[in-house]
């Protein structure tokens, strides 16, 4: 390769560099390779069904946005040798807010770290930086938000907030800030199409949403329960945005003494956003929870009564995660039913993931025990009911046993009519023996084949939920109202 060695304007070194550059620039092998290898194609999914992963427990790191820097600008003043400070303040960083949205089903995150927007820097001519946008994260209704306390963090019982040495400033927790956030959540709810008065009241009622009752704030070693997002629109701020730095304009007019630059620089520094580690746990909110052994026909019943389409198959543990379905009545009443995976003997001690499944029916108003009347898997329906009731009684503090219940014998299409009375009697005896709280008959149905008995069962489901609602209202009036 010939170099213009005799050139006075370009040295040999420069020339070599140029050559290298030109070689790099015109090297077309990369293009040729690109032609040979086709561009990466999106992976074809095996089934046409969208992949859906149910997540009911997760950990996530949330970070409030950093505040913007305050500007140190000084403009020349009319007075000679004087400068007038005219730097604007930095904007506050956005906060991270979790909002309960009934359209969300699962706790899925695109990223395990959620961060709100930074505040913009202040500028000269008293221009204040823009506040960072709050990051509003939608979670399903029924999420318990726990904060994991890190080293140096303590829960302040009085102020009901976490204090740490870095962001020991509660000023962003003042009412103005809450109102602002509440407005934002309200706008979100409007966009979600929530017109239910109760829902809107919940969103408006800041005191209730922002400051939990004493009972709700329980310390569990190094975790603290921040909120129970159990109603649509319930929200909680989990990471505050950092406050923006102060601009030089805070230092008065031209006549005053010049500010100390060191002090000015220190004040212009923004605060970082709060960092919090959260544990989120979803406990489904449903009116009725289905309780049964695997293969009893729980999913078939939910399919037959609602628009939900849980998988139904002739083998146990077809359902692997809880599914919510709504039973809609002609007059607009809607009852939410939770289908959980089948329970087995020892579920209350965690066997067969029992804890995980029972957790989802903890908050239901009533339970629906369903047994396989035909004993397809060589089961005895009355004995099954005893085992199920025993598991429910042994779970937690046994409070689920005080819940109203319906008892259903499924698969009666496989039985003769004559055998039904005897079977019903045996099941009702087992119910009495176990102390199941039911004043209804034993419902004999065929959920998956003929649909027999479904209409009277759906009426009873509605009645039992209404009864529980009435009882709850009475209790509320007696104790609180
Ligand atoms: N003959 C008859 N079979 C039924 C009836 N209901 C459900 N089945 C069958 O029973 C089997 C189990 O039904 P599922 O609805 O999947 O039972 P499940 O209780 O949800 O089972 P898991 O999800 O495994 O806990 C399936 O093969 C259904 O077709 C019924 O009324 N009659
Ligand atoms: Mg099922």
Descriptive keywords:
481 residues, alpha/beta, Spo0b-associated Gtp-binding Protein, Chain: A, Rossmann fold, 2 domains, six-stranded mixed β-sheet, 19 strands, 27% helix, elongated, disordered N terminus, binds guanosine-5'-triphosphate, binds magnesium ion
Helix percentage range:
25-40%
CATH class call of the largest domain: Mainly Beta
Give the overall silhouette: elongated
Distance between the termini: 95 Å
Kindly name the structural category: alpha/beta
Mean pLDDT: 76
Here the CATH topology of the largest domain equals: Spo0b-associated Gtp-binding Protein, Chain: A
**Bound ligand species:** guanosine-5'-triphosphate, magnesium ion
**Total separate domains:** 2
CATH superfamily of the largest domain: GTP1/OBG domain
**Uncertain regions: pLDDT < 50 for 5+ in a row?**
1-51, 167-176, 194-221
Amount of beta strand: 15-25%
**Can you write the helix and strand succession as a string?**
HHEEEEEEEEEHHHEEEHEEHEEHEHEHEH
Largest sheet at a glance? Answer: 6 strands, mixed
- Number of E-state strands: 19
CATH architecture of the largest domain, by name, is: Distorted Sandwich
Q: Radius of gyration, Cα only, in angstroms?
A: 32 Å
Q: DSSP helix count?
A: 11
Main sheet: strand order: 5-1-13-7-11-10
Family: Belongs to the TRAFAC class OBG-HflX-like GTPase superfamily. OBG GTPase family.
Keywords: GTP-binding, Nucleotide-binding
Protein name: GTPase
Organism: Fistulifera solaris (Oleaginous diatom)
């Amino acid at each position: 390769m010939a170099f213009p060695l005799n050139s006075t304007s370009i040295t040999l070194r420069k020339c070599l560099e140029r050559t290298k550059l030109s070689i790099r620039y015109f090297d077309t092998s990369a293009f040729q390779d690109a032609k040979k290898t086709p561009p990466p194609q999106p992976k074809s999914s095996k089934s046409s069904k969208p992949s859906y992963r149910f997540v009911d427990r997760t950990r996530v790191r949330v970070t409030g946005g950093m505040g913007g820097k305050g500007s140190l600008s000084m403009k020349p003043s009319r007075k000679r040798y004087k400068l007038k400070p005219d730097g604007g303040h930095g904007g506050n960083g956005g906060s991270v807010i979790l909002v309960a949205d009934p359209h969300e089903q699962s706790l899925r995150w695109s990223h395990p770290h959620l961060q709100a927007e930074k505040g913009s820097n202040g500028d000269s001519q008293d221009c204040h930086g823009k506040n960072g946008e709050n990051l509003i994260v939608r979670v399903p209704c029924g999420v318990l938000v726990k904060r994991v306390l890190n080293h140096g963090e303590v829960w302040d019982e009085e102020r009901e907030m976490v204090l740490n040495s870095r962001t020991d400033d509660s000023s962003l927790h003042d009412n103005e800030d809450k109102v602002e956030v509440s407005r934002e959540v309200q706008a979100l709810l409007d966009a979600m199409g929530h017109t239910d008065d109760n829902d809107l009241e919940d969103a408006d009622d800041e005191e209730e949403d922002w400051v939990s009752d004493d009972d709700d704030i329980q310390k569990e070693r190094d975790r603290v329960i921040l909120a129970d997002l159990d109603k649509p629109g319930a929200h909680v701020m989990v990471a505050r945005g950092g406050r923006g730095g102060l601009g030089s304009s805070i230092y008065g007019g031209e006549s005053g003494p010049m500010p100390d630059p060191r002090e000015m620089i220190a004040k212009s520094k923004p605060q970082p956003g709060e960092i919090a580690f959260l544990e989120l746990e979803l406990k489904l909110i449903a009116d009725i929870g289905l309780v049964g052994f695997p293969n009893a026909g729980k999913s078939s019943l939910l399919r037959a009564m609602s628009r939900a389409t849980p998988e139904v198959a002739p083998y146990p543990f077809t359902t692997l995660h809880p599914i919510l379905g709504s039973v809609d009545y002609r007059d607009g009443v809607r009852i939410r039913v939770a289908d959980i995976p089948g329970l087995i003997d020892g579920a209350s001690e965690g066997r067969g993931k029992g804890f995980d499944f029972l957790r989802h029916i903890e908050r239901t108003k009533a339970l629906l025990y369903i047994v396989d009347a035909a004993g397809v898997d060589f089961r005895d329906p009355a004995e099954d009911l005893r085992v199920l009731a025993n598991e429910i009684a042994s779970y937690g503090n046994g409070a689920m046993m005080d819940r109203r219940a319906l008892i259903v014998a499924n698969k009666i299409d496989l039985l003769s009519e004559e055998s039904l009375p005897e079977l019903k009697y045996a099941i009702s005896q087992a119910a009495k023996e176990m102390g199941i709280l039911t004043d209804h008959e034993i419902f004999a149905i065929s959920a998956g084949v003929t649909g027999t008995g479904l209409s009277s069962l759906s009426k009873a489901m509605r009645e039992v939920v209404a009864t529980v609602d009435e009882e709850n209202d009475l209790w509320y009036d007696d104790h609180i109202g």
